[in-house]
Specification:
Length: 494
């Protein structure tokens, strides 16, 4: 096995530390041996800097091998379903847009008779994603000014909640194509669209990381917002990244999720040395990747708008990238940029690193005043990934805004049922899914037509009866959390 070198905090050369769970290696019998045989070797499934002479390592114990098995099985299933998922997603999105543009089933029938069916055009400013059809709300709170939004004259929860409302809608908007994003920002939000980035992932060998930037106005802006796209429902690579347990240790910071680093364009597990190269602050390669493209544009914007501060946000995978972006800024000693950071808001974000990363970032973003807020809705499974134990070391940090199925908010250090496993949670999770289905049929009568759920959203609630943790990941519930949770924005009283 090749050995790779990196540099520690003192600039000394040392061996790079990493662990890669390789889902494509070994067969069914190898998995069974790994799971049931004591002392079974895991080198078929793991490439690591810590492998010993027998093919094992500190992570090779009976109490932890099952985590590797689960990861391998899940990623293999996702890999098998990858093409069908992609095809199904394209068909579903096309049909949803076809019905929407033609006024529903009845309107489509009439247009078929008249011969003037409106055909959806993928990539146009009217072609909406599956996430957008789950929740079509994109209007901001009408009476909130940007002066309130950035908290310059409120100093209280109103400004925080207004900003949080913008962040969840921007996180949801990030799932749309560039034309939809620009159209919404300019014509509905009356803000300035800066740029949409479709960035290269060197490991996946495709442009799989999307992010957009807006400012409140084109001149003398006071706010710049960066929104990363999250896990797309029918993208197998996104889901495989979420359940991956591979990590790379960055000297000074700690162990960081390898898939999320790759999504930012900061390395490629096929060649471990690329992480060291791409994480160099003066690196001139891969300027077409998310971290360097966004950083370059942000520097330009903050130079042009002397009074502006910036916010980073994202849902799901986008939330992981939203917190890792300032992590790498700090690694690169971009202290002047970080002074202009107003806040980070993530929604349904997976874990990104170990306790060392947690300690480092707490000192930077959580003290003396918190600038990082992590919203978690009820039984959402993604914030419970990757698995948190003494082997894989993944931990959360930051203020957790936890919402139960009544959208009641609690400020906690960690969401309940942090690993989403255990028989004692099984029945409550499914009973809660039943309640969520009932709630979705009643909510518009309680809170108004804005909260009415369409047939596609109701279908996802039905699916949640079988997989509650997946259905609870919908951005719709996060919009409801912000607007109906404790301390929510009262639109008619601002």
């Amino acid at each position: 096995m090749a050995k790779y070198e990196t540099k520690n905090e003192e600039g000394e050369t040392c061996e790079a530390k990493y662990l890669i769970v390789k889902a494509e290696m070994g067969g069914i019998l190898d998995l069974l041996k790994l799971l049931v045989l004591n002392g079974g070797r895991v080198h078929e499934f793991v490439e690591s800097s810590e492998v010993d002479g027998d093919g094992g390592g500190e992570w090779d114990s009976g109490g932890h091998r099952w985590v590797i098995v689960v990861s391998v099985i899940m990623r293999r299933i996702i890999g098998i379903l990858g093409k069908p998922m992609e095809g199904t997603g394209m068909v579903i999105e096309f049909l949803l847009n076809l019905l929407d543009l033609n006024g529903g089933i009845y309107g489509l029938f009439l247009n078929l008779i008249k011969g003037n069916v409106v055909r959806p055009e993928r990539g146009s400013d009217t072609y909406i994603s599956a996430i957008g059809h789950l929740d079509s709300r994109l209007d901001l709170c009408r009476e909130v000014s940007f002066l309130n939004l950035v908290g310059l004259d409120t100093g209280g929860k109103c400004g925080d909640r207004a900003l949080m409302d913008l962040c969840i809608l921007a996180s949801k908007l990030a799932y749309e194509n560039a034309n939809v994003v620009e159209n919404i920002i300019v014509h509905r939000w009356k803000m300035h669209f800066v740029e949409f980035f479709n960035c290269w992932n060197d490991y996946q060998k495709k442009r799989s990381t999307q992010v957009f930037i807006l400012s409140d106005k084109p001149k003398d802006a006071t706010l710049v917002l960066i929104s990363f796209r999250g896990t797309e429902p029918f993208d197998a690579d996104d889901w495989s990244t979420d359940v991956d347990y591979s990590w790379y240790e960055i000297p000074k910071l700690g162990k960081v999720h390898m898939g999320f680093l790759e999504a930012l364009g900061l390395g490629n597990r096929a060649q471990i040395s690329t992480f060291q190269n791409y994480l160099q602050p003066k690196n001139q390669a891969n300027k077409d990747t998310a971290y360097y493209a966004v950083k370059s544009k942000l520097e330009s914007l903050l130079h042009d708008h002397k009074d502006a501060k910036f916010v980073v946000t994202g849902h799901s995978l986008g939330g992981a990238l939203a917190i890792l972006f300032p992590v790498v800024l700090l690694l690169h000693d971009e202290h002047e940029l970080m002074k202009r950071l107003l806040a980070i808001y993530t929604f349904g974000q997976p874990r990104v690193g170990d306790e060392n990363l947690v300690s480092f970032m707490k000192a930077q973003l959580c003290e003396p005043m918190p600038r990082y807020f992590r919203a978690v809705y009820c039984n959402d499974i993604v914030p419970r990934l990757p698995y948190d134990d003494s082997t894989f070391l993944y931990k959360h940090f930051g203020l957790c805004l936890y919402y139960n199925s009544l959208y009641s908010e609690q400020n906690v250090e960690e969401e309940p049922n942090r690993n989403y496993f255990g028989l004692r949670y099984l029945i409550p999770e499914h009973l809660n899914a039943v309640w969520e289905l009932i709630r979705c049929l009643m909510i518009s009568h309680v809170y108004g037509p804005e909260y009415e759920e369409g047939w596609f959203s109701i279908f996802i609630r039905v699916f949640g009866l079988f997989m509650p943790g997946v259905s609870a990941h919908s951005p719709r519930d996060y919009v409801n959390c912000v607007r109906l949770g404790r301390g929510r924005i009262q639109m008619d009283s601002i």
